[in-house]
Amino acid sequence: MIYIISEKTDMVTDLVTEWLNHKGQNFKRFNVGDFVKSKVLMSSNDNEIMELKNATKVWQRRGTVSVLPEEVLKAYPNRTAYLDYLLKEVKVFSNYREFELKEKLQNNYIGSLQKENENNKLVNLAIAQRCGLNIPNTLVTTCKSELQKFYDQFAPIISKDLRAPVMIHTRHKDIISKGVELVNQKSIDRMADQFAPIFLQQYIEKEYEIRIFIACGKIYSMAIFSQKDNQTKIDYRNYNEQRPNRCVPVKLPETIEKKVWKFMEAKEMNTGSMDIIRAPEGAYVFLEINPMGQFHWLSQNCNYQIEKEIAKFLSDEKN
What angle (nearest 5°) sits at the alpha carbon of residue 91, between those of residues 58 and 81? Predict the structure, then answer.
């Protein structure tokens, strides 16, 4: 049986399931929040992931299923210290369930919630560098004087979030980050001498940005010509809805593909969305990877039909 774990609103999951239906494949989709019975009796080696025990292929697309019965959730309608505690307990069990299924299915388990939860930009940069990929000059500091030295040496520089964009909602106001921002001397002058850790990188001029999606043993790459638009020049995610960036298929050099595969092996990942810059002089510079990143726009713009390829993989089709 094919099992898919995703979010109810995830469009690419819908497209993959449409292909599976077209192929007449039996599958079951679980969405985030769906309750799945589970038990583990380790002393007798009777580990059974109930409702998932007959899995032949698993696609861990987004999120995870729940092992908290609805009655428990209803008892804590609002997030409380009690529910927070239970969710921490559940996280341990969910990670073990993924471990157990991966041990059983090996390469037939695509994706990983654990990799998503543990995703660390600094670790990824270090591993990318060890795998032979270029990375930007990078600094994390809590000290204004070190920030100033970095700026003096490598300006222009940018700042971005270490984990995820800021989204803080309070009774009085909402605090939302703008994503990647250029750092200038005026902003440095306004800063205190000590502050919370800030993530800084040298701004890399680019010929184009590359979004890469890796899945089912294949690399799909798309060039994004973001540098020709002032709104998207710093980061293509500052989308210009009125005049979208030109996006076209691109083939990575074989040497870079080998380094990408080396990185994926070092991270023990079999899928993910990677961002790379091609600099004007021809260098390829690694920026980051998202274990559960979006890929439909890449598939659609480049006519890769990745959703069909995933369905073929889940269906054990060779061609």
Answer: 150
Specify the higher pLDDT residue, 226 or 257: 257
Beta-carbon neighbour count of residue 203 at 10 Å? 18
Tens of pLDDT, residues 122-148: 999 999 999 999 999 999 999 999 999
Secondary structure (3-state) at 279: coil
pTM of the predicted model as reported, rounded to 2 decimal places:
0.89
Q: Where are the alpha helices (DSSP H) in the chain?
A: 11-22, 70-75, 81-105, 113-118, 121-130, 144-154, 185-189, 254-267, 296-302, 306-314
State the residue for tokens 């292909």.
Answer: 19
Contacts of 72 (CB under 8 A, 6+ apart): 86
Closest-CA residue to 27 (of 10, 48, 6): 6
Distances (CA, A) of 224 to 7, 178, 219, 255, 271: 27, 20, 16, 21, 21
pLDDT tens readout for residues 149-161: 999 999 999 998 8
Question: Smallest Cα–Cα separation from 87: which of 168, 157, 32?
Answer: 32
